[in-house]
Amino acid sequence: MTKPNTSSLSNLFCIACSAVVILGRTCSCLQFTYPNFNASNRDDFRFSPGSAISNNSLQITPSAGNMTHRSGRVVYAKETLKLWNSKRTALTSFRTDFMLNILPQNGTGEGMAFVLTNNLPLPSNSSGQWLGVCNNQTDGAKTNRVVAVEFDTRKSNEDDLDGNHVGIDINSIKSFRQYPLNNLSIFLSTGSDVWVSIRYHGTLQLLQIFLVQYSIRGRHLFQGDTYIDLSQVLQDDVYLGFTGSTGDTTQLNQIKSWNFTTVDIDVKVGRGRWRKVLLALVTLLVFCISLFAGLFMWRRLTRRRRLAYRNLEKKIDAHGPVKFKLRELRHATANFSPTRKLGRGGFGTVYLGYVDRMNLEVAVKRVSTDKQADTNRGEKEFVAEVNTISKLSHRNLVKLIGWCHKKGELLLVYEYFPMGSLDKLLYARERTASSSSMSASTDTPELTWKRRYKIICGVASALDYLHHGSSKRILHRDVKASNVMLDAEYNARLGDFGLARVIQHDGVTHHSTQVVAGTRGYMAYESFFTGRASLDTDVYAFGVFVMEVVSGRSPSNAVAAPLADAHRGLDVEALRRREGLACRRPFARRRV
Protein backbone atom coordinates (compact mmCIF):
# COMPACT_ATOMS: atom_id res chain seq x y z
CA MET A 1 0.00 0.00 0.00
CA THR A 2 1.34 3.41 -0.96
CA LYS A 3 1.55 5.76 1.99
CA PRO A 4 0.41 9.37 1.67
CA ASN A 5 2.80 12.28 1.50
CA THR A 6 3.57 13.04 5.14
CA SER A 7 4.32 16.73 4.73
CA SER A 8 0.96 17.27 3.02
CA LEU A 9 -0.76 15.23 5.69
CA SER A 10 0.83 17.36 8.39
CA ASN A 11 -0.58 20.49 6.78
CA LEU A 12 -4.03 18.92 6.44
CA PHE A 13 -3.83 17.86 10.10
CA CYS A 14 -3.23 21.48 11.16
CA ILE A 15 -6.09 22.73 8.96
CA ALA A 16 -8.44 20.11 10.38
CA CYS A 17 -7.53 21.05 13.94
CA SER A 18 -8.17 24.72 13.20
CA ALA A 19 -11.54 23.97 11.61
CA VAL A 20 -12.65 21.86 14.55
CA VAL A 21 -11.67 24.60 16.99
CA ILE A 22 -14.18 26.86 15.20
CA LEU A 23 -16.96 24.38 14.46
CA GLY A 24 -16.61 21.76 17.15
CA ARG A 25 -15.18 21.54 20.63
CA THR A 26 -11.57 21.07 21.70
CA CYS A 27 -9.89 20.78 25.04
CA SER A 28 -6.22 20.73 25.88
CA CYS A 29 -5.77 17.45 27.79
CA LEU A 30 -2.12 17.69 28.80
CA GLN A 31 0.31 20.56 28.43
CA PHE A 32 3.51 21.59 30.18
CA THR A 33 6.62 23.65 29.46
CA TYR A 34 10.03 23.52 31.11
CA PRO A 35 12.55 25.95 29.54
CA ASN A 36 15.05 24.52 32.06
CA PHE A 37 15.02 22.51 35.28
CA ASN A 38 15.78 23.40 38.89
CA ALA A 39 15.14 22.11 42.41
CA SER A 40 11.60 23.55 42.48
CA ASN A 41 10.62 21.19 39.64
CA ARG A 42 11.68 18.02 41.43
CA ASP A 43 8.18 17.11 42.66
CA ASP A 44 6.89 17.24 39.09
CA PHE A 45 8.89 14.14 38.17
CA ARG A 46 9.58 10.66 39.40
CA PHE A 47 13.28 9.73 39.40
CA SER A 48 14.89 6.30 39.47
CA PRO A 49 17.89 5.89 41.83
CA GLY A 50 20.81 7.94 40.49
CA SER A 51 18.67 10.17 38.27
CA ALA A 52 18.46 13.80 39.35
CA ILE A 53 18.23 17.47 38.42
CA SER A 54 21.59 19.22 38.12
CA ASN A 55 23.20 21.82 35.88
CA ASN A 56 19.65 23.01 35.04
CA SER A 57 19.02 19.70 33.29
CA LEU A 58 17.37 16.35 33.84
CA GLN A 59 20.22 13.89 34.39
CA ILE A 60 18.71 10.62 33.19
CA THR A 61 21.68 8.54 34.35
CA PRO A 62 24.04 9.34 37.27
CA SER A 63 26.25 12.37 36.67
CA ALA A 64 28.65 11.63 39.55
CA GLY A 65 30.10 8.70 41.49
CA ASN A 66 29.99 5.29 39.86
CA MET A 67 28.67 5.99 36.36
CA THR A 68 29.49 2.71 34.59
CA HIS A 69 26.83 0.09 33.86
CA ARG A 70 23.98 2.26 35.12
CA SER A 71 20.47 2.88 33.83
CA GLY A 72 17.97 5.57 34.73
CA ARG A 73 14.44 6.78 34.14
CA VAL A 74 12.75 10.17 34.66
CA VAL A 75 8.94 10.29 34.24
CA TYR A 76 6.50 13.21 34.34
CA ALA A 77 4.52 12.52 37.52
CA LYS A 78 1.79 15.17 37.68
CA GLU A 79 -0.48 13.65 35.05
CA THR A 80 -0.69 10.83 32.52
CA LEU A 81 -1.44 11.04 28.82
CA LYS A 82 -4.89 9.80 27.83
CA LEU A 83 -4.36 7.61 24.79
CA TRP A 84 -7.87 8.24 23.41
CA ASN A 85 -9.81 11.47 23.01
CA SER A 86 -12.77 12.16 25.32
CA LYS A 87 -15.29 10.48 22.96
CA ARG A 88 -12.92 7.57 22.22
CA THR A 89 -13.33 8.28 18.51
CA ALA A 90 -9.63 8.73 17.75
CA LEU A 91 -6.18 8.40 19.28
CA THR A 92 -4.90 11.55 20.95
CA SER A 93 -2.59 13.71 18.86
CA PHE A 94 0.42 15.21 20.60
CA ARG A 95 3.67 17.07 20.08
CA THR A 96 6.73 17.11 22.33
CA ASP A 97 9.91 19.17 21.89
CA PHE A 98 13.05 18.81 23.97
CA MET A 99 16.72 19.80 23.94
CA LEU A 100 18.99 16.77 24.10
CA ASN A 101 22.63 16.96 25.20
CA ILE A 102 24.83 13.87 25.43
CA LEU A 103 28.27 14.64 26.88
CA PRO A 104 30.90 11.83 26.69
CA GLN A 105 32.95 11.22 29.85
CA ASN A 106 35.35 8.40 28.91
CA GLY A 107 34.01 7.41 25.51
CA THR A 108 30.47 7.13 24.25
CA GLY A 109 27.65 4.81 25.27
CA GLU A 110 25.15 3.67 25.52
CA GLY A 111 22.32 6.09 24.70
CA MET A 112 18.91 7.32 25.82
CA ALA A 113 15.28 7.35 24.70
CA PHE A 114 11.97 9.21 24.92
CA VAL A 115 9.39 6.68 26.13
CA LEU A 116 5.63 6.21 26.26
CA THR A 117 4.82 3.40 28.70
CA ASN A 118 2.21 1.99 31.07
CA ASN A 119 4.89 0.67 33.45
CA LEU A 120 6.36 3.29 35.74
CA PRO A 121 9.33 1.49 37.42
CA LEU A 122 12.76 1.23 35.78
CA PRO A 123 13.42 -2.39 34.71
CA SER A 124 16.20 -4.06 36.68
CA ASN A 125 19.46 -4.95 34.91
CA SER A 126 18.61 -2.55 32.07
CA SER A 127 22.03 -0.90 31.70
CA GLY A 128 24.28 -1.20 28.66
CA GLN A 129 22.51 -1.99 25.40
CA TRP A 130 19.06 -2.04 27.08
CA LEU A 131 18.92 1.80 27.47
CA GLY A 132 16.63 1.45 30.50
CA VAL A 133 13.79 0.31 28.21
CA CYS A 134 13.76 -3.40 29.10
CA ASN A 135 16.18 -6.18 30.04
CA ASN A 136 17.31 -9.58 28.85
CA GLN A 137 14.31 -11.37 30.38
CA THR A 138 11.59 -8.96 29.21
CA ASP A 139 12.93 -8.00 25.77
CA GLY A 140 10.10 -8.40 23.25
CA ALA A 141 7.40 -9.14 25.84
CA LYS A 142 4.01 -7.52 25.17
CA THR A 143 3.67 -6.84 28.89
CA ASN A 144 6.42 -4.21 28.57
CA ARG A 145 3.85 -1.86 27.02
CA VAL A 146 6.46 0.64 25.89
CA VAL A 147 7.10 2.65 22.74
CA ALA A 148 10.51 4.35 22.66
CA VAL A 149 12.31 6.72 20.32
CA GLU A 150 15.94 5.84 21.02
CA PHE A 151 19.04 7.96 20.47
CA ASP A 152 21.77 5.32 20.29
CA THR A 153 25.43 6.31 20.69
CA ARG A 154 27.09 2.90 20.68
CA LYS A 155 26.72 -0.21 18.53
CA SER A 156 26.23 -2.75 21.32
CA ASN A 157 23.59 -4.88 19.63
CA GLU A 158 24.27 -6.85 16.47
CA ASP A 159 21.03 -5.48 15.03
CA ASP A 160 22.13 -1.87 15.54
CA LEU A 161 22.75 0.09 12.35
CA ASP A 162 25.79 1.88 13.80
CA GLY A 163 26.82 3.89 16.86
CA ASN A 164 24.99 7.07 15.87
CA HIS A 165 21.35 6.61 14.90
CA VAL A 166 17.71 7.13 15.82
CA GLY A 167 15.53 4.07 16.33
CA ILE A 168 11.88 3.30 17.10
CA ASP A 169 11.39 0.48 19.59
CA ILE A 170 8.18 -1.39 20.46
CA ASN A 171 8.39 -3.60 23.58
CA SER A 172 11.97 -4.44 22.61
CA ILE A 173 15.38 -2.85 22.28
CA LYS A 174 15.59 -4.26 18.75
CA SER A 175 14.38 -1.32 16.70
CA PHE A 176 11.79 -2.03 14.05
CA ARG A 177 12.86 1.16 12.27
CA GLN A 178 16.32 2.80 12.30
CA TYR A 179 17.57 6.04 10.75
CA PRO A 180 21.31 6.79 10.24
CA LEU A 181 22.59 10.26 11.14
CA ASN A 182 26.24 10.25 10.05
CA ASN A 183 25.32 11.02 6.45
CA LEU A 184 23.48 14.15 7.66
CA SER A 185 26.43 15.35 9.80
CA ILE A 186 24.33 15.02 12.97
CA PHE A 187 26.33 13.55 15.84
CA LEU A 188 24.49 12.76 19.08
CA SER A 189 27.40 12.28 21.47
CA THR A 190 29.58 15.35 20.94
CA GLY A 191 28.31 17.41 23.87
CA SER A 192 26.49 19.81 21.56
CA ASP A 193 22.74 20.47 21.81
CA VAL A 194 20.33 18.56 19.57
CA TRP A 195 16.77 19.91 19.24
CA VAL A 196 14.24 17.07 18.97
CA SER A 197 10.57 17.28 18.01
CA ILE A 198 8.30 14.22 18.09
CA ARG A 199 4.76 14.52 16.70
CA TYR A 200 1.98 11.94 16.64
CA HIS A 201 -1.10 12.40 14.44
CA GLY A 202 -3.77 10.24 16.07
CA THR A 203 -6.21 10.14 13.17
CA LEU A 204 -3.44 9.13 10.75
CA GLN A 205 -1.47 7.06 13.27
CA LEU A 206 1.62 8.82 11.93
CA LEU A 207 4.72 9.35 14.07
CA GLN A 208 7.15 12.04 12.91
CA ILE A 209 10.63 12.68 14.33
CA PHE A 210 12.66 15.82 13.66
CA LEU A 211 16.25 16.55 14.74
CA VAL A 212 18.17 19.79 14.29
CA GLN A 213 21.82 20.33 15.22
CA TYR A 214 23.93 23.41 14.59
CA SER A 215 27.67 23.34 13.96
CA ILE A 216 30.29 25.65 12.51
CA ARG A 217 29.31 24.22 9.13
CA GLY A 218 25.67 25.26 9.46
CA ARG A 219 22.30 23.70 10.25
CA HIS A 220 21.80 19.95 9.95
CA LEU A 221 18.26 18.55 9.76
CA PHE A 222 16.77 15.04 10.02
CA GLN A 223 13.18 13.90 9.52
CA GLY A 224 11.85 10.38 9.92
CA ASP A 225 8.23 9.24 9.47
CA THR A 226 6.58 5.94 10.33
CA TYR A 227 3.09 4.60 11.03
CA ILE A 228 2.29 3.16 14.47
CA ASP A 229 -1.06 2.23 16.03
CA LEU A 230 -0.29 3.06 19.66
CA SER A 231 -3.52 1.38 20.80
CA GLN A 232 -2.02 -1.99 19.81
CA VAL A 233 0.84 -1.46 22.29
CA LEU A 234 -0.35 0.86 25.06
CA GLN A 235 -3.32 1.08 27.41
CA ASP A 236 -5.19 4.33 28.07
CA ASP A 237 -3.09 5.92 30.86
CA VAL A 238 0.40 6.53 29.49
CA TYR A 239 3.46 7.79 31.36
CA LEU A 240 5.83 10.15 29.54
CA GLY A 241 9.53 10.40 30.20
CA PHE A 242 13.10 9.52 29.36
CA THR A 243 15.33 6.52 29.94
CA GLY A 244 19.05 6.04 29.42
CA SER A 245 22.01 3.83 30.21
CA THR A 246 25.79 3.55 30.28
CA GLY A 247 28.11 0.57 29.89
CA ASP A 248 31.89 0.22 30.10
CA THR A 249 32.09 3.77 28.77
CA THR A 250 30.06 6.62 30.22
CA GLN A 251 28.29 9.77 29.14
CA LEU A 252 25.94 12.33 30.63
CA ASN A 253 22.43 11.79 29.23
CA GLN A 254 20.84 15.20 29.70
CA ILE A 255 17.54 16.90 28.85
CA LYS A 256 17.95 20.69 29.03
CA SER A 257 14.35 21.70 28.20
CA TRP A 258 11.02 19.95 27.55
CA ASN A 259 7.64 20.98 26.14
CA PHE A 260 4.61 18.73 25.68
CA THR A 261 1.07 19.38 24.45
CA THR A 262 -1.90 17.34 23.27
CA VAL A 263 -5.16 18.20 21.54
CA ASP A 264 -8.26 16.12 22.26
CA ILE A 265 -10.50 16.56 19.23
CA ASP A 266 -14.21 15.87 19.68
CA VAL A 267 -15.53 15.52 16.16
CA LYS A 268 -19.20 15.46 17.17
CA VAL A 269 -20.91 18.67 16.03
CA GLY A 270 -24.15 20.09 17.49
CA ARG A 271 -27.28 20.20 15.33
CA GLY A 272 -27.44 23.99 15.42
CA ARG A 273 -24.07 24.23 13.69
CA TRP A 274 -24.81 22.14 10.62
CA ARG A 275 -25.22 25.26 8.50
CA LYS A 276 -21.78 26.49 9.49
CA VAL A 277 -20.35 23.05 8.86
CA LEU A 278 -22.01 22.88 5.44
CA LEU A 279 -20.80 26.38 4.55
CA ALA A 280 -17.29 25.49 5.65
CA LEU A 281 -17.37 22.28 3.61
CA VAL A 282 -18.57 24.12 0.50
CA THR A 283 -15.86 26.74 0.95
CA LEU A 284 -13.28 24.03 1.43
CA LEU A 285 -14.58 22.19 -1.65
CA VAL A 286 -14.28 25.33 -3.82
CA PHE A 287 -10.80 25.93 -2.46
CA CYS A 288 -9.77 22.33 -3.19
CA ILE A 289 -11.16 22.50 -6.74
CA SER A 290 -9.22 25.71 -7.38
CA LEU A 291 -6.11 24.20 -5.84
CA PHE A 292 -6.32 21.03 -7.89
CA ALA A 293 -6.99 23.02 -11.06
CA GLY A 294 -3.83 25.02 -10.41
CA LEU A 295 -1.88 21.86 -9.66
CA PHE A 296 -3.18 20.27 -12.85
CA MET A 297 -1.98 23.20 -14.94
CA TRP A 298 1.37 23.20 -13.17
CA ARG A 299 1.76 19.47 -13.77
CA ARG A 300 1.01 19.92 -17.46
CA LEU A 301 3.64 22.63 -17.73
CA THR A 302 6.28 20.50 -15.98
CA ARG A 303 5.30 17.10 -17.34
CA ARG A 304 7.67 17.27 -20.28
CA ARG A 305 10.63 18.04 -18.03
CA ARG A 306 9.79 15.20 -15.62
CA LEU A 307 9.35 12.72 -18.46
CA ALA A 308 12.69 13.79 -19.89
CA TYR A 309 14.31 13.19 -16.51
CA ARG A 310 12.73 9.74 -16.13
CA ASN A 311 13.80 8.76 -19.62
CA LEU A 312 17.31 9.93 -18.82
CA GLU A 313 17.43 7.83 -15.65
CA LYS A 314 16.18 4.77 -17.54
CA LYS A 315 19.00 5.16 -20.03
CA ILE A 316 21.57 5.06 -17.25
CA ASP A 317 22.39 1.58 -16.00
CA ALA A 318 20.74 0.99 -12.61
CA HIS A 319 23.89 -0.82 -11.47
CA GLY A 320 26.15 2.00 -12.59
CA PRO A 321 27.95 4.69 -10.58
CA VAL A 322 26.66 6.52 -7.49
CA LYS A 323 23.73 8.89 -7.93
CA PHE A 324 24.52 12.10 -6.01
CA LYS A 325 22.08 14.71 -4.76
CA LEU A 326 22.39 18.14 -6.35
CA ARG A 327 22.71 19.88 -2.98
CA GLU A 328 25.60 17.57 -2.07
CA LEU A 329 27.54 18.50 -5.20
CA ARG A 330 26.74 22.18 -4.76
CA HIS A 331 28.14 21.98 -1.25
CA ALA A 332 31.18 20.04 -2.49
CA THR A 333 32.03 22.73 -5.08
CA ALA A 334 31.05 25.78 -2.97
CA ASN A 335 28.05 26.23 -5.28
CA PHE A 336 30.24 25.90 -8.38
CA SER A 337 32.46 28.77 -7.31
CA PRO A 338 34.73 30.25 -10.02
CA THR A 339 37.63 29.72 -7.60
CA ARG A 340 37.02 25.95 -7.84
CA LYS A 341 37.08 25.91 -11.64
CA LEU A 342 39.67 23.51 -13.05
CA GLY A 343 38.94 24.13 -16.73
CA ARG A 344 36.62 23.13 -19.54
CA GLY A 345 36.21 19.59 -20.76
CA GLY A 346 34.19 18.14 -23.60
CA PHE A 347 30.85 19.93 -23.50
CA GLY A 348 31.18 21.17 -19.94
CA THR A 349 33.10 22.95 -17.19
CA VAL A 350 35.05 21.01 -14.56
CA TYR A 351 35.19 22.04 -10.88
CA LEU A 352 37.22 20.81 -7.93
CA GLY A 353 35.00 19.37 -5.19
CA TYR A 354 35.21 17.58 -1.86
CA VAL A 355 32.63 14.93 -0.90
CA ASP A 356 32.34 14.77 2.88
CA ARG A 357 30.77 11.32 3.18
CA MET A 358 33.53 9.80 1.02
CA ASN A 359 36.35 11.96 2.42
CA LEU A 360 37.44 12.37 -1.18
CA GLU A 361 38.49 15.12 -3.57
CA VAL A 362 36.68 14.83 -6.89
CA ALA A 363 36.40 16.57 -10.24
CA VAL A 364 32.80 17.58 -10.97
CA LYS A 365 31.94 18.10 -14.62
CA ARG A 366 28.97 20.42 -15.18
CA VAL A 367 27.58 19.58 -18.62
CA SER A 368 26.56 22.73 -20.50
CA THR A 369 22.84 23.07 -21.33
CA ASP A 370 22.66 26.83 -21.84
CA LYS A 371 20.59 26.81 -25.02
CA GLN A 372 17.53 24.75 -25.87
CA ALA A 373 19.29 23.55 -28.98
CA ASP A 374 22.16 22.33 -26.82
CA THR A 375 19.96 20.73 -24.17
CA ASN A 376 19.14 17.59 -26.14
CA ARG A 377 22.72 17.27 -27.28
CA GLY A 378 23.96 17.86 -23.74
CA GLU A 379 21.71 15.13 -22.36
CA LYS A 380 22.85 12.75 -25.09
CA GLU A 381 26.49 13.49 -24.25
CA PHE A 382 25.64 12.97 -20.57
CA VAL A 383 24.02 9.57 -21.11
CA ALA A 384 26.84 8.50 -23.40
CA GLU A 385 29.51 9.39 -20.88
CA VAL A 386 27.76 7.76 -17.89
CA ASN A 387 26.85 4.54 -19.69
CA THR A 388 30.21 4.25 -21.39
CA ILE A 389 32.58 4.86 -18.49
CA SER A 390 30.51 3.03 -15.86
CA LYS A 391 31.02 -0.27 -17.70
CA LEU A 392 34.77 0.15 -18.20
CA SER A 393 37.62 -0.83 -15.89
CA HIS A 394 41.21 -0.15 -16.93
CA ARG A 395 44.20 1.32 -15.15
CA ASN A 396 44.65 3.96 -17.87
CA LEU A 397 41.05 5.20 -17.95
CA VAL A 398 39.61 7.93 -15.72
CA LYS A 399 37.22 6.42 -13.16
CA LEU A 400 33.65 7.73 -13.05
CA ILE A 401 32.50 7.90 -9.40
CA GLY A 402 28.94 9.18 -9.81
CA TRP A 403 26.40 11.39 -11.54
CA CYS A 404 23.49 13.73 -10.90
CA HIS A 405 20.63 15.10 -12.97
CA LYS A 406 18.34 17.54 -11.17
CA LYS A 407 16.68 20.87 -11.98
CA GLY A 408 18.23 20.95 -15.43
CA GLU A 409 21.74 20.28 -14.11
CA LEU A 410 23.74 17.44 -15.69
CA LEU A 411 26.72 16.56 -13.47
CA LEU A 412 29.44 13.90 -13.64
CA VAL A 413 31.78 13.12 -10.75
CA TYR A 414 35.27 11.79 -11.55
CA GLU A 415 38.33 10.92 -9.53
CA TYR A 416 40.55 13.98 -9.16
CA PHE A 417 44.17 14.16 -10.36
CA PRO A 418 46.18 17.03 -8.78
CA MET A 419 48.71 16.87 -11.64
CA GLY A 420 45.95 17.92 -14.03
CA SER A 421 45.81 17.27 -17.75
CA LEU A 422 48.81 16.50 -19.92
CA ASP A 423 48.51 19.63 -22.06
CA LYS A 424 48.95 21.90 -19.03
CA LEU A 425 52.22 20.17 -18.19
CA LEU A 426 53.32 19.81 -21.81
CA TYR A 427 53.06 23.55 -22.45
CA ALA A 428 53.60 24.82 -18.91
CA ARG A 429 57.06 26.24 -19.54
CA GLU A 430 55.98 27.82 -22.80
CA ARG A 431 53.06 29.57 -21.07
CA THR A 432 55.21 30.65 -18.14
CA ALA A 433 57.86 32.09 -20.44
CA SER A 434 55.32 33.91 -22.62
CA SER A 435 53.58 35.45 -19.61
CA SER A 436 56.80 36.82 -18.10
CA SER A 437 59.99 38.39 -19.33
CA MET A 438 61.91 36.13 -16.95
CA SER A 439 62.95 32.59 -17.74
CA ALA A 440 60.48 29.74 -17.33
CA SER A 441 59.87 28.49 -13.83
CA THR A 442 62.10 25.69 -12.73
CA ASP A 443 59.30 24.46 -10.44
CA THR A 444 57.44 22.97 -13.41
CA PRO A 445 58.00 19.18 -13.48
CA GLU A 446 60.07 18.13 -16.48
CA LEU A 447 58.57 15.73 -19.00
CA THR A 448 61.58 13.52 -19.60
CA TRP A 449 61.64 11.14 -22.55
CA LYS A 450 61.05 8.26 -20.15
CA ARG A 451 57.93 9.95 -18.81
CA ARG A 452 56.66 10.87 -22.27
CA TYR A 453 57.17 7.31 -23.43
CA LYS A 454 55.27 6.04 -20.38
CA ILE A 455 52.39 8.43 -21.11
CA ILE A 456 52.18 7.41 -24.77
CA CYS A 457 52.17 3.72 -23.82
CA GLY A 458 49.43 4.34 -21.24
CA VAL A 459 47.15 6.07 -23.76
CA ALA A 460 47.87 3.33 -26.31
CA SER A 461 46.91 0.70 -23.74
CA ALA A 462 43.67 2.54 -22.96
CA LEU A 463 42.73 2.80 -26.65
CA ASP A 464 43.55 -0.86 -27.22
CA TYR A 465 41.22 -1.75 -24.34
CA LEU A 466 38.44 0.43 -25.75
CA HIS A 467 38.82 -1.02 -29.24
CA HIS A 468 39.46 -4.67 -28.40
CA GLY A 469 39.31 -5.35 -24.65
CA SER A 470 35.82 -4.28 -23.58
CA SER A 471 32.62 -6.25 -24.21
CA LYS A 472 31.67 -3.74 -26.90
CA ARG A 473 34.03 -1.78 -29.07
CA ILE A 474 34.12 1.85 -28.05
CA LEU A 475 35.23 4.76 -30.19
CA HIS A 476 36.64 7.57 -28.11
CA ARG A 477 36.50 10.10 -31.00
CA ASP A 478 38.35 12.86 -29.12
CA VAL A 479 41.86 11.63 -28.25
CA LYS A 480 44.05 14.64 -27.40
CA ALA A 481 46.49 15.85 -24.75
CA SER A 482 43.88 17.87 -22.83
CA ASN A 483 41.82 14.68 -22.34
CA VAL A 484 44.72 12.80 -20.73
CA MET A 485 45.04 13.11 -16.94
CA LEU A 486 48.25 12.36 -15.03
CA ASP A 487 48.60 10.89 -11.57
CA ALA A 488 51.54 11.52 -9.24
CA GLU A 489 53.62 8.80 -10.96
CA TYR A 490 52.93 10.15 -14.46
CA ASN A 491 50.57 7.32 -15.33
CA ALA A 492 48.24 8.44 -18.12
CA ARG A 493 44.46 8.27 -17.62
CA LEU A 494 42.34 8.79 -20.72
CA GLY A 495 39.09 10.57 -19.98
CA ASP A 496 36.31 12.82 -21.32
CA PHE A 497 34.03 10.27 -22.93
CA GLY A 498 31.47 12.89 -23.96
CA LEU A 499 31.92 11.93 -27.61
CA ALA A 500 32.34 8.18 -27.06
CA ARG A 501 30.11 5.81 -29.04
CA VAL A 502 29.66 2.05 -28.88
CA ILE A 503 29.89 -0.31 -31.87
CA GLN A 504 29.33 -4.08 -31.84
CA HIS A 505 31.93 -6.79 -32.40
CA ASP A 506 30.15 -7.80 -35.58
CA GLY A 507 32.47 -6.52 -38.26
CA VAL A 508 31.09 -2.99 -38.12
CA THR A 509 34.07 -0.65 -37.91
CA HIS A 510 32.46 2.75 -38.18
CA HIS A 511 29.71 4.85 -36.67
CA SER A 512 27.79 7.43 -38.65
CA THR A 513 26.89 10.79 -37.19
CA GLN A 514 25.22 13.93 -38.46
CA VAL A 515 27.73 16.11 -36.61
CA VAL A 516 31.46 15.79 -37.25
CA ALA A 517 32.77 14.86 -33.81
CA GLY A 518 36.19 15.56 -32.39
CA THR A 519 38.69 18.40 -32.23
CA ARG A 520 40.18 20.02 -35.32
CA GLY A 521 43.82 19.12 -35.74
CA TYR A 522 43.20 15.62 -34.35
CA MET A 523 40.54 14.57 -36.86
CA ALA A 524 41.30 12.22 -39.73
CA TYR A 525 40.92 13.45 -43.30
CA GLU A 526 38.01 11.15 -44.11
CA SER A 527 35.95 12.45 -41.16
CA PHE A 528 35.30 15.74 -42.96
CA PHE A 529 33.96 13.95 -46.06
CA THR A 530 32.11 10.92 -44.69
CA GLY A 531 31.05 12.15 -41.26
CA ARG A 532 31.98 8.69 -39.97
CA ALA A 533 34.03 7.77 -36.92
CA SER A 534 35.92 4.48 -36.87
CA LEU A 535 38.80 2.67 -35.23
CA ASP A 536 41.00 4.26 -37.87
CA THR A 537 39.96 7.80 -36.92
CA ASP A 538 40.89 7.05 -33.31
CA VAL A 539 44.25 5.71 -34.51
CA TYR A 540 44.78 8.91 -36.51
CA ALA A 541 44.03 11.06 -33.45
CA PHE A 542 46.45 8.92 -31.45
CA GLY A 543 49.11 9.57 -34.08
CA VAL A 544 48.59 13.32 -33.73
CA PHE A 545 48.77 12.88 -29.97
CA VAL A 546 52.09 11.00 -30.23
CA MET A 547 53.55 13.75 -32.43
CA GLU A 548 52.31 16.35 -29.96
CA VAL A 549 53.92 14.63 -26.97
CA VAL A 550 57.20 13.99 -28.80
CA SER A 551 57.57 17.40 -30.41
CA GLY A 552 55.94 19.47 -27.69
CA ARG A 553 53.97 21.21 -30.43
CA SER A 554 50.19 21.62 -30.45
CA PRO A 555 48.44 20.78 -33.76
CA SER A 556 47.15 24.36 -33.78
CA ASN A 557 50.49 25.95 -32.83
CA ALA A 558 53.48 26.21 -35.14
CA VAL A 559 55.89 26.97 -32.28
CA ALA A 560 57.19 23.96 -30.39
CA ALA A 561 57.73 23.81 -26.66
CA PRO A 562 61.26 22.92 -25.42
CA LEU A 563 62.06 19.22 -25.80
CA ALA A 564 63.15 17.13 -22.85
CA ASP A 565 66.67 15.64 -22.78
CA ALA A 566 67.25 17.05 -26.25
CA HIS A 567 70.79 15.72 -26.63
CA ARG A 568 70.17 12.31 -25.10
CA GLY A 569 66.83 11.33 -26.64
CA LEU A 570 67.20 11.98 -30.38
CA ASP A 571 66.88 8.30 -31.28
CA VAL A 572 63.81 7.89 -29.08
CA GLU A 573 62.33 11.07 -30.51
CA ALA A 574 62.86 9.89 -34.05
CA LEU A 575 61.28 6.56 -33.27
CA ARG A 576 58.22 8.15 -31.67
CA ARG A 577 57.92 10.56 -34.61
CA ARG A 578 57.91 7.62 -37.04
CA GLU A 579 55.17 5.88 -35.05
CA GLY A 580 53.13 9.07 -34.92
CA LEU A 581 53.48 9.61 -38.68
CA ALA A 582 52.56 5.98 -39.33
CA CYS A 583 49.30 6.51 -37.46
CA ARG A 584 48.58 9.66 -39.47
CA ARG A 585 48.74 8.18 -42.98
CA PRO A 586 46.01 9.60 -45.24
CA PHE A 587 44.74 6.12 -46.17
CA ALA A 588 42.99 4.62 -43.16
CA ARG A 589 43.89 1.00 -43.90
CA ARG A 590 47.62 1.80 -43.98
CA ARG A 591 47.62 3.24 -40.45
CA VAL A 592 49.26 1.16 -37.73
Automatic annotation (TrEMBL):
It comes from Aegilops tauschii subsp. strangulata (Goatgrass). GO terms for molecular function: ATP binding; carbohydrate binding; protein serine/threonine kinase activity. It is a single-pass type I membrane protein. ATP binds at K365. It catalyses: L-seryl-[protein] + ATP = O-phospho-L-seryl-[protein] + ADP + H(+); L-threonyl-[protein] + ATP = O-phospho-L-threonyl-[protein] + ADP + H(+). Residues 1-24 form the signal peptide. GO terms for cellular component: plasma membrane. InterPro entries: ConA-like_dom_sf, Kinase-like_dom_sf, L-type_Lectin-RKs, Lectin_legB_Mn/Ca_BS, Legume_lectin_dom, Prot_kinase_dom, Protein_kinase_ATP_BS, Ser-Thr/Tyr_kinase_cat_dom. SUPFAM superfamilies: Concanavalin A-like lectins/glucanases, Protein kinase-like (PK-like). SMART domains: S_TKc. In the C-terminal section; belongs to the protein kinase superfamily. Ser/Thr protein kinase family. Residues 336-592 form the Protein kinase domain. It is found in: Cell membrane. The chain crosses the membrane at residues 277-298. Its EC number is 2.7.11.1. One of its GO terms (biological process) is defense response. Keywords: ATP-binding, Cell membrane, Glycoprotein, Kinase, Lectin, Membrane, Nucleotide-binding, Serine/threonine-protein kinase, Signal, Transferase, Transmembrane, Transmembrane helix. It holds the Pfam family Lectin_legB. This is non-specific serine/threonine protein kinase. It comes from the Eukaryota.
